[in-house]
Automatic annotation (TrEMBL):
PROSITE patterns: PROKAR_LIPOPROTEIN. It comes from the Bacteria. Keywords: Signal. This is DUF4292 domain-containing protein. Residues 1-22 form the signal peptide.
Length: 264
C-alpha cells in the first residue's frame, strides 16, 4: 500500500523507512552574500498557472521488482493534485490531495487511505508538509519554509546555495522536529537539489531536479530524482514526458470492499 499510495500523492513519499543521504557539495569556491533581495524574491515566487497536466514515468529501485509506472498528474493551482497510475496497461491506483488532506487507493492489495497531511509528514519524518509545499515539491519550487534570517546564502560557479545557519524547528500538532537544510539553485534560480537531515543525523532526504524546460510562462523539471537511505536504500526516478494546460476530469471514488490503512 505504502509504495503506491505515496506515488499517487507526490512520487517522493513512497517508503516509510528511515532515510539517510550523502551530501554533495557544489564544486568551486563559495562566496557568502550578505543580502540578496532578488534571490529570495525569485525563490518565493508563487505559481500563477490555472491548471497543469503532466504525463510521467516513474521508476523505483528498492531491492524488489516494481514495474515502470505510467502516471498522469493533474494540478489545479492551490486546489488539488490528482494522480492516476498504470502499470503494464492496468490501472493500479488513484489519489487526490486538497488543502484539507489526502485520499488514495491501490488495487493490488485493495487498500485506501484518507488522512490529513500528517500521513505524509509521518512518512517523511517531518511536520511541515501541507498542500502548498506538496504542490511546490512536484513543480520543483522551494517547498521548505524559508525565513531569510535562518539561512546563509553563498554564490559559486554552479549558482547559489542556501545553508541553514542553525537547526530549523518545525512545529505541528504539538510536536517539534529540528533539521539542517541545504538547497542548491542554478544561476537562473532553478532549484537543483534539496537536502534535509534531522538533528540526530538519522533521518535524511535528498531530492534533485534536472533538465528544466519552459512551458506556458513557467519553468518545470523534466526529471526528478529522490534518494532515501536507511535500513535499505530506495531511489525514485520521475521522468515528466509531456506538459499540457488543458482542463481534465478528475474522478475519485474508492471501490467497494477496500480496506482502510493507517501508517504507524
Amino acid at each position: 500500500m505504502k509504495k503506491y499510495i505515496l506515488v499517487l500523492m507526490t512520487s517522493a513519499f513512497l517508503f516509510s523507512c528511515k532515510s539517510k543521504m550523502a551530501t554533495n557539495a557544489p564544486i568551486g569556491t563559495s562566496n557568502e552574500i550578505a543580502a540578496n533581495a532578488t534571490f529570495f524574491s525569485k525563490i518565493k515566487e508563487r505559481s500563477d498557472f490555472q491548471q497543469l497536466k503532466i504525463n510521467s514515468k516513474i521508476n523505483i529501485e528498492n531491492g524488489t521488482f516494481i514495474p515502470t509506472l505510467d502516471a498522469t498528474i493533474y494540478i489545479e493551482n492551490g486546489q488539488k493534485v490528482w494522480m492516476n497510475m498504470i502499470a503494464i496497461f492496468l490501472n493500479v491506483g488513484r489519489g487526490i490531495a486538497t488543502p484539507d488532506g489526502i485520499k488514495g487507493y491501490e488495487k493490488w492489495n485493495k487498500t485506501y487511505i484518507e488522512s490529513d497531511f500528517s500521513y505524509l509528514n509521518k512518512l517523511l519524518n517531518v511536520n511541515f508538509i501541507d498542500y502548498n509545499s506538496l504542490q511546490n515539491l512536484l513543480l520543483g519550487k522551494t517547498f521548505v519554509p524559508i525565513n531569510e534570517k535562518d539561512f546563509i546564502l553563498t554564490k559559486n560557479a554552479q549558482g547559489y546555495r542556501l545553508t541553514s545557519s542553525k537547526n530549523l524547528k518545525f512545529e505541528n500538532n504539538g510536536q517539534t522536529s529540528e533539521y539542517s537544510v541545504i538547497m542548491d539553485y542554478s544561476p537562473d534560480f532553478d532549484l537543483s537539489q534539496v537536502q534535509l537531515e534531522d538533528k540526530n543525523k538519522t533521518n535524511q532526504l535528498e531530492i534533485s531536479y534536472f533538465n528544466w524546460t519552459g512551458f506556458d510562462n513557467m519553468k518545470l523539471p523534466k526529471n526528478v530524482k529522490i534518494i532515501i537511505k536507511g535500513t535499505k536504500t530506495s531511489q525514485i526516478f520521475l521522468e515528466n514526458t509531456r506538459f499540457e494546460s488543458s482542463k481534465m476530469d478528475t474522478p475519485y471514488s474508492v471501490p467497494n470492499n477496500y480496506t482502510k490503512t493507517e501508517i504507524r
